From TrEMBL:
InterPro entries membership: BP-dependent_transpt_permease, MetI-like, MetI-like_sf
CC terms in the record's Gene Ontology section: plasma membrane
Protein name: Peptide/nickel transport system permease protein
Domain (ABC transmembrane type-1) ranges: 62-252
Matching PANTHER family: OLIGOPEPTIDE TRANSPORT SYSTEM PERMEASE PROTEIN APPC, PEPTIDE ABC TRANSPORTER PERMEASE PROTEIN
Keywords, sorted A to Z: Cell membrane, Membrane, Transmembrane, Transmembrane helix, Transport
Family: Belongs to the binding-protein-dependent transport system permease family.
Topology term for the membrane: Multi-pass membrane protein
Length: 274
C-alpha cells in the first residue's frame, strides 16, 4: 500500500474513531462543570463555554453528526439514482424531459435557503433538516447519474445485447454496474462532503441541533467568540470536520483512480528519477 493511501486512511480514521469509539472513552471524563474557557482536570485542551472538557465534548459530538450526514446521502442517492437512470433509459424524449426539468428547477433554488426554511418551519427538527439537505442533493445527483449512465444504456454493448435477444435483466445490470461503479462511487464521496458542509452550516447558524449540544459544528459556533483565549474549543471540532472531508476526498481519488492512468503516472515519475 502506498504512502499516499496510508495518509488518506489516517485522515479518515481519526474523526471516525472520535465518532464511533469516542462516547466510550468520554465516560471517564468528569461529570461536573468546570470553569468556562479554563484549564481542564481531564485533558490538556481546556474547557468550553459551558465548562465541559473540550476533548470529552469532541469525543461525544461526532456520532450523530456523521450518522445524519451518511443517512442523508444514502437516501438522496437512492432517489437521485433512480431518477437519473430512468431519464437516461427513457424511450421517449418527452419522458426524459418530464423527469429532468423539475431537477433543473430544484437546482435553481439555493440549498441553504431550502435548509433554513425547513429548519424554521419545524423549529430546528434534525429530521426535517436532514430531509431538506437530501432534497438539495437529489437534483445534482440525478443530473450526474443521467450523464454517467446515458452512454452506457445507449452504448454499443447494450445495443449488441438487445440485438442478440438477451432477455436476462441481470446481464444488462451487471454490465451497467461495472461501467458506472467508478464514477458513481467517486460522486458519493463528493455528495458526502456536500452533506457535511450543509449540515455543518445549519448547525453553525443555530438551525440544527440544540445549541448546548456537543456536536462538532455546534461547538465551533458556540465557542467562536473565545477563539483567542480557548483556541482548542474551536480548533479541535473544526479540525475533525476538515480531516474527515479532506480524507474522504483524497481516499476516493486514490482508490477510484484509473489503473492505467496510475501506471502511466508511475512510469513517468520513475523515468524522471532515473
Amino acid at each position: 500500500m502506498s504512502a499516499r493511501r496510508w495518509m488518506c486512511l489516517a485522515l479518515v480514521a481519526m474523526p471516525l474513531v472520535f465518532a464511533l469509539v469516542g462516547p466510550l472513552l468520554a465516560r471517564s471524563a468528569p461529570e461536573g462543570r468546570q470553569v468556562p474557557f479554563g484549564p481542564s482536570q481531564w485533558s490538556p485542551f481546556g474547557t468550553d463555554r459551558l465548562g465541559r472538557d473540550v476533548l470529552a465534548a469532541a469525543l461525544t459530538g461526532g456520532r450523530t453528526f456523521l450518522v445524519v450526514a451518511a443517512l442523508t446521502v444514502l437516501g438522496a442517492y437512492a432517489v437521485g439514482f433512480l431518477i437519473g437512470v430512468a431519464a437516461a433509459a427513457a424511450p421517449r424524449v418527452w419522458l426524459d424531459e418530464l423527469l429532468m426539468r423539475p431537477m433543473d428547477v430544484l437546482l435553481c433554488l439555493p440549498s441553504l435557503l431550502i435548509i433554513m426554511v425547513a429548519a424554521l418551519r419545524t423549529r430546528g427538527s434534525a429530521v426535517a433538516i436532514a430531509c431538506a439537505i437530501g432534497i438539495a442533493l437529489v437534483a445534482p445527483i440525478a443530473r450526474f447519474v443521467r450523464m454517467a449512465s446515458r452512454g452506457v444504456v445507449h452504448g454499443p454493448v447494450m445495443d449488441a445485447l438487445r440485438m442478440q435477444g438477451e432477455g436476462r435483466a441481470y446481464r444488462y445490470g451487471n454490465y451497467a454496474a461495472r461501467q458506472m461503479i467508478r464514477p458513481i462511487a467517486a460522486d458519493v464521496g463528493v455528495r458526502f462532503t456536500a452533506a457535511v458542509y450543509f449540515l455543518a452550516s445549519a448547525n453553525f447558524l443555530g438551525l440544527g441541533f440544540d445549541t448546548t449540544s456537543t456536536d462538532w459544528a455546534v461547538s465551533v459556533a458556540a465557542n467562536k467568540d473565545a477563539l483567542t483565549i480557548a483556541p482548542w474549543s474551536v480548533a479541535l471540532p473544526a479540525g475533525l470536520i476538515v480531516l474527515l472531508v479532506v480524507g474522504i476526498n483524497l481516499l476516493c481519488d486514490d482508490l477510484l483512480s484509473d489503473p492505467h492512468t496510475v501506471a502511466a503516472r508511475a512510469a513517468v515519475s520513475g523515468g524522471r528519477r532515473e
